[in-house]
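Table S7 (text form). Paired inputs.
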Amino acid sequence: MKGHCERMSQQWWRVIRLFFHNGSYRVKLVCGVLLVLAILWLANRASFIMGWHYDPNEPKLQGSRYRYTVLLNTWKRDDLLKQSVAHYSSCKGVDAIRVIWSEIEPPSESLLLTLSASVFSSSKTLQRIPEFRVDLHDDDNLNNRFKPIEGLETEAVFSIDDDVIVPCPTLELAFSVWLSAPESMVGFVPRMHWTDSKRHDTSYRYGGWWSVWWTGTYSMVLTKAAFFHKKYLDLYTYHLPPTIREYVRSERNCEDIAMSFLIANATGAPPFWVKGRIYEIGSTGISSLTGHNHRRTHCLNYFSALFGRMPLVASNVKVVPAYQEWFW
């Protein structure tokens, strides 16, 4: 078989050389283009036949270990909630969607019907329909987003805000990264803590997106779009210092920094930043308020004092989807 293929290849090249030697310039140009297209087509067919086709949107393994639950935090933005539920219902790796509802008034019957119908219609092309529930809480407390979830079947949870849309292929890429490091946090929105050189004592300041972009260094990924193990919900609620949870409740900020401290303290390792295009469909949020970075800086210093050290670990590792990248 091998000898036959080699003889066929040699014959083809003899024909090609003879044609290009005798043909006109225009004929050579046209046929050269056709030859390139034919080679590309053959290469594509070969990859298909050999099973080299890559579909980033399809989980390769089955079972709850290889699926994840979407924890969707919402607050008085029903239109955004509808968009988010419809979108994440269409992602193949989603096992369940749990909406974290912290408003005083429970969701209306019409909203619940709309959301349930959206889950069914958005997932009808999938092998299974994600379970959908709204978890009601009695108080308006940012700590609610990290309370243990009753009936949670998956080890992985994807924490997401109602105004953030992560395309399904990008979400599956991040999940595959989490599967390789399930003790770590894996997310899309990196941030950094910096040592404040202007002060004589050991203190820190909060570094937003631009400082990460400029230096390529980060130590946190925000839980507005991040994977982590479900066990951290229990650790956050029952083992994190109560003063930190009280600070989060009273200040209505920094629950994501608190979770980053907890996971870094448990693992001694940095999170993973997955580079991917995400879409923020809302116009307002806590981060848009005046003095946001100053408040986050205070969180870093207050939490590190309570921990007795700074547990966050800096990293320069960035996960990039190689099948989409032309330049490194």
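Next pair, protein 2 of 2.
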Amino acid sequence: MLKELQLSLSVVLLLACGFLYQLTLRSHCLFCLPFSKSQQGPDALLSQGHSIVFLETSERLEPPPLVSCAVESAAKIYPEQPVIFFMKGLKNSTQLPSNSSYPAFSLLSAIDNVFFFPLDMNRLFENTPLFSWYTHINSKVERHWLHVSSDACRLAIIWKYGGVYMDTDIISIRPIPEENFLAAQASQVSSNGVFGFLPRHPFLWECMENFVEHYNSHIWGNQGPRLITRMLRVWCKLGNFQELSDLRCQNISFLHPHRFYPISYSKWRRYYEVWDPEPNFNDSYALHLWNHMNQGRRTVIKGSNTLVENLYRKYCPTTYRHLVQGPKVSVTRSR
């Protein structure tokens, strides 16, 4: 009888150890509770203040491979933080099937810390300087509306809830160690493709005010990187970067271009070339692939051994396995 009891206890112990081992593999944290997708809405997740946020302001529902890679890589690099993707085309009643019609959506939905929610701009802009602008604007006649509305949404979301906003063509490669930060695209020039702040930061409130006061959708980037740059110059006396050091101003970190833009926009094609040897990007937190410059002209090809293919293999392996196609093609070699 005693031996049977000991055997039963041993089996229970082994099962418990196996469960804990699987839990640590999935969450990288022994005592962290897994995310519950069925019980948490966007407000509950965002209120934690450390979400990674992506936006889709078109009606598109199926993310292309680069967008899938951006989301998957963020989920992989930040396993304990919710990765939230707001999509304008996603309605409250929309139920996308897990089939071949939406492979990327299904792939990303299966990741524990990735969440999809509808993008309700009217509700998002409430109690911000952007609300009156949004309720009076005629989006049908606006130039660059998809980009302008995205510029507005990212300011409002991060101001209300805090966290990190990322463009959907940014591949995360290591955690960002800053709370309040802007990313330099060049010396004394800020981007708005990635930034992070604690909730209710006054810099973002002033950015929203300036967005409305100096609204001009005919000037490309006027509501985006140009806005962030001009407001940063109001807040800070910007100097040049010294080597690879970041700049500090009040409680904002202005991060060196190498943190997110080690390959500048004028050289975006180099991501689609073969490198020998490959760069290690040891000074970067994420890589911006300049998809606006590409416009779908170059894609990731299996077997090409390009820099971007190897980034996919390393940082978004599930996207690479299921969404990247062959066959091999000839590519440019870069020294």
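Residues 2-27 form the longest helix (26 residues).
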